[in-house]
Design goal:
The structure holds 3 protein chains of 3 kinds. In chain A, about 40% of the residues lie in helices and about 15% in strands. Chain A is of the alpha/beta class. In chain A, strand 3, helix 4 and strand 4 form a beta-alpha-beta unit. The radius of gyration of chain A is 16 Å and the shape is globular. By secondary structure, chain B is an alpha/beta fold. Chain B has 2 domains: about 1-145, Rossmann fold, CATH 3.40.50; about 170-265, Arc Repressor Mutant, subunit A. Chain B has helices spanning about 15-20, 35-40, 65-70, 95-110, 130-145, 155-165, 170-185, 195-220, 225-235, 235-250, and strands at about 25-30, 50-55, 75-80, 120, 225, 255-260, 260-265. In chain B, the strands form 2 sheets. Chain B has a 4-stranded parallel beta sheet with strand order 2-1-3-4, with helices on both faces. Chain B has a 3-stranded antiparallel beta sheet with strand order 5-7-6. In chain B, helix 2 links the parallel strand 1 and strand 2 (about 50-55). Chain B is flat, with a radius of gyration of 21 Å. Classes of the chains: A alpha/beta, B alpha/beta, C alpha/beta.
Chain lengths: ~150, ~270, ~1000
Amino acid sequence: MSSATPNAGGEHKLEQEDFEPRILVFCCNWCSYAGADLAGVSRLQMPPHFRVIRVMCSARVDPEFVLRAFQKGADGVLVAGCHPADCHYIGGNYRTRRRIALLRILLQQFGFDPGRLKLEWISAGEGERFQKTIVEFTDVVNELGPSPVRGGD
Amino acid sequence: MAQKHHTAHHGKKHEPDKEWEPKIVGFLCNWCSYAGADLCGVSRFQYPTNIRLVRVMCSTRVSPHLVLDVFEAGADGILIGGCHLNDCHYMTGNFHTEKRVELMKRLLKEAGIDEGRLRLEWVSASEGEKFSKVVTEFTEGIQKLGPSKVRSDDMMKAKVSAADDASQTFRLKALVGKEFNLLSKGNAYGEEVDAEKLTGVIDVATQDEFERALILELARIRPMSVKQLGMVMDVPTDKILRHIVLLRQNSKIAMEHPEGFTPVYKTIAIGGEQ
Amino acid sequence: MAATDKVGAVMVVGGGISGLQSALDLADSGFKVYLVEKQPSIGGTMAQLDKTFPTNDCAMCIMAPKLVSTGRHHNISLVTNADIMSVDGQAGDFTVTVKQRALRVDPAKCTGCGSCAQTCPIETSDEYNENTKVRKAIYVRYPQAVPLVYSIDKDKCIGCGICAEECKAKAVVYDQEESTSEIKVGSIILSPGFDEFDARMKGEYGYGVYKNVVTSIEFERMLSATGPYFGTVLRPSDGDIPEKIAFIQCVGSRDEQVGNEYCSGVCCMYSIKEAIIAKEHGGDIKPKVFFMDMRAFGKEFDEYYNRAQNEYGIEFVRSRVASVFEDPETKNLVVKYVEKGEPKEEEFGLVVLAVGLKPPQDAEALSKVMGFDLNTDGFCRTTVFDPVSSSKQGVFVSGAFSSPKDIPMTVAEASGAAAKAATEIASARDSLVTMKEYPEELDITGQEPRIGVFVCHCGINIGGVVNVPSVAEYARTLPNVAYAEENLYTCSQDTQEKIKEMIKEHELNRVVVASCTPRTHEPLFQNTIKEAGLNSYLFEMANIRDQCSWIHMHEAPAATKKAKDLVRMAVAKARLLEPLENLTIDVNQQALVIGGGATGMIAALEMAKQGVKVHLVEKEKELGGNLRKLHYLPSGEDPTEHADALAKEVMSNDNITVHTGTGVKNIDGYVGNFKTALDSGEEIEHGVVILAVGGQEYKPEGEYLYGENPNVLTLLEFKEKLKKDEAKGDSYVFIQCVGSREEGHPNCSRVCCTGTMTAAIKVKEKNPEAKVYVLYRDIRTYGFREAYYKDAAEKGVTFIRFEDDVKPKVEDKGGKLQVTVTDEDTDKEVVLTSDYLVLASGTRPYPESEALAPMLKVPMTKEGFFLEAHMKLRPVDFATEGVYLAGLSHGPKFLDESIGQGLAAVARAMTVLSKKTLEAEGIVASLDETLCDGCGICVPTCEYKALEIIVDKKDETKKLVDVNVGLCKGCGACVGACPSGALTQKGFKDEQIVAMIDAALEGLLGKQEVKQ
């Protein structure tokens, strides 16, 4: 059975045998949090290294929250909101998009790989997209290894 | 089928067959059949030497998984012996055995194994002679059927393995486990259950579960498209697709990024994707 | 309260989007609602849709909040799995007998966890997914179903008993029987929706025979992420992605053969949508749409159609498909059709049939039981001036049951029907609704947090993966946790009692529940702690089921670890929770209606009948607006007579103050508290505004000799002459789409095709010998209006289609007009001489709209129409609360549609006006004045215009932002933008979120953060 499992990381994984990435996910209440719930209702399986914080709108995600998370050792931060046209609060998520773009530049300046911060639109009906996003992002973070704050590079 | 004429007498073409001796496993219940076999010995009734006997407490202990596992290992025939109906030491055990053997036969049929390779026989503690007769007859039958192809034919092996997996699904276990009580005591609504209808439900479920297990078996080795699966399994492609819909829903199989217009599917190993 | 013999309750029959809207409007304005639904759960057809046109919004995303609020509204009783058996009594006092079929699951006990369906061994096809998937014999229709109660499909169930064994809540009741109840209501609203046309009746398309021929609703499920193929379009026959997809329009619509001559109105748009989404899913897919007329008549629909062609490269072929054949080898489909007289064939991988809408199966039975009339097509009969009333007094109708229609029109009608239903029983308002009594709130100021943690097993849904006892044990070790326990089902009724007891016993002042999702269960637990005297915001949830045990089923230790983290995070936030107050705003219970046309008059009258004081402002001297310019209605009524009658009724109504000959100078304030100054100098105070300012016919100066030749007239001008018998002649030419569907005005004006039919028919009636030509691009006589098209054609009107970019030419040939047009069908030039040239010119907004928009802080489309809060589900609302719109200022539409919207605006307005005070959101933005420097960066981030820069009253040199809690919806966008940290969001304060972040990441950086 295990022969069929794609083993994320390959040799990379040998050096970091114990590395268990910690990913923080901000979900907006109306779409992506509902999408995450639907993934659960559909029993879609995904790696258990992420923790979700619910906010009313992805636009509530203050850049400081993201920076705080990295400062406290998060290996990756995912911000998930409604698709641009679906926002419960009309245009909130357009603002989110601009903020995240800015933050990625900032992160790079601090010596973080900008790939550690991701923005994704996930609707209430997209449980599978939530799963895919978590799986892929966990892979990316695994590949990047521990955050510089945690002694990685 | 061709095998039927393929007896030891004119099996000259196939070299290995010459030395072939059927390997038969017998499961006997402690209280009746095993005692019957003992009596057979005490009475010096003779039967062929091909059978190896395994004692179990009740014939109902012989799960489909056990039987299919033994076929998977290459057994040519399996004999299950239990008490006569209503004589079971454990009251109704052998009624359940009967239902399970029906499931096994359904699955053997799906897997392409002649149903004659599995036999259920009631042998009481006093039927020593019957035991020798049953074993002799059964061994002769297996001789006629020839060697099991499970070990030489990869597809057959996959099929038996799928049948085994199917037999262990909750759905089939639940249906077959409830079958006897439903028929004898009525259903949860206090209604009598139509045996024919129930058999139909189990038939459909068995075929579905077998086909799904086989899809997983085949797509475990390499990613396969619906059309490839349909061809290999000889099942209509629209039905294969419906199975895949369900298997994806249950996170058993994943679509690989399609190249061109034909998506392929790969079985997800238990434990998720990591 | 005045004594009344009316019953203050309404029964809404049908729980689709229409029924939901009616129920919510009524329940929010003082009436008890019984929502009766055939299925075990509400949601209707919209819940099956993937996306919605023209915005491509995810249907479930926008619908789910309405589903949830309906399900938990304390004035709405859901009566599901039920049929109407009989109706007695009369308007104001009906007794309805309702039979509820047995669910065989006790709704009071079922927690919706789904364990039963997981283990049920019986598979059957899933109707919600149009049989493309399987469901079990015990099931819910869809995962987001409301109520989330499983039910047994007795036809499929074998009675094995496994679900009952599996259900830890003991909710399965095999011997449950159907129950009959008598319900007393004052009004009834019918919204049973529609059935799809059975495509098998069109044998030539091979549906049901060829596997790769599917209906549009099946295709909708195939597109959906929650559908069978997770959103990848696959062929049912072999799972290949179809390279070419054919969409065949008008299957079961505009088709004499099958007996449905009407147009189903929505299929053109949903096919465009499906083609676009299919294209978005797989760029290599090539959709092709076979159609007769492209009926993209709604607001911004033509732009959508244009995008489909230009941006997505979807092909459109104007042809009725003759037949479809399958290649037995490849299962591909050969579509046979005629284009420009040439028979053609083309092969496709998949064929989608755009099936029409037909009346619901039980329409006839309903009409007999209730005593209302159906029209000849079997839909509920209504009239132009009363589009939401059935022929039976007190019985109202909305949605597709009165004619095929799209979601926004349905939602508007649903509100409109709610308004009429409320008027019928206005005297009984507030008589049957209940207000819940809660104990006085405990004062927790200055107390150390004492947190109670309740960890749920959810049967085996959580407990089967996560080690629940160890999570509860862990919770006890967290700072400030005074009590922790585990429950089999934390949401069950007995646990609610337990939670209340524990709050008392352990003096808890914060509660954390670790179970499922706050989206469905937070209100339940908030209510529980409120009953124990705690402020409902002293509650936090940890989602250890949907987002933990269910998605890490094979990793028990990691899932348990995660569950502990989630509990730690919730406790960290709970420690910082504060009681929040839902502020109340006083409401001025008067209304202002701007615009005295049909829409405005009807809105004003409807509110007046419900006892509301209304100010009606009309810029002209006389009431009536466009109604006085129509002269003919296709249905035969005299619009001028109606205008006079309505104006008279308005003028004589004591509750209405009419202000004619004046405009609006300024409007200030917010919901419940508006102040308006009129040009006349008068000042009005009111709680809501209804914008019904109307629209006008475009004057095509300089086009087709308009303004140069006196016999070139617009449609309305021509009708006026016709009415006065001044338009005599032998030949008439009509040109369609003048000033519509072109550069600068890309959208359809919706009414001109039908208006042209009305005029052409009148001309023919007056002079059967007259030659009448209609030059058109698409004939858009949607719905039952198709009959007028047919009538015109039968009367001998000639229709000539011209290509979009080859407009007809008009010359003045010595008194006679000569029109040259290239007939698209034959590619030949046709020269027509005529006495009159009638230009069916488009609808334009009045310039007044532009002046009103900034006063009310409401947005407009680029064409100058008002832009509603949501194109689909909030058609008469604005994001700004207390302001509503209706009629032509929203976009071009027919009289009955304008009236429907006018009534809808009334229902929406009554949700405000029926109350003396409004309760604002608890979770709102709040300001620390000492930190704010009035920079104003936050102001544009607020979509609800709740923020404003003001001068600090204490220090006039300082500026401040002012948060209007009446307008704030609590998204927190401004908080995320504030550079000085002065703004914060109650319930989601920075320190609360930061505490969660820190708790989530605790221990990652070595051991420095030891728990105290």
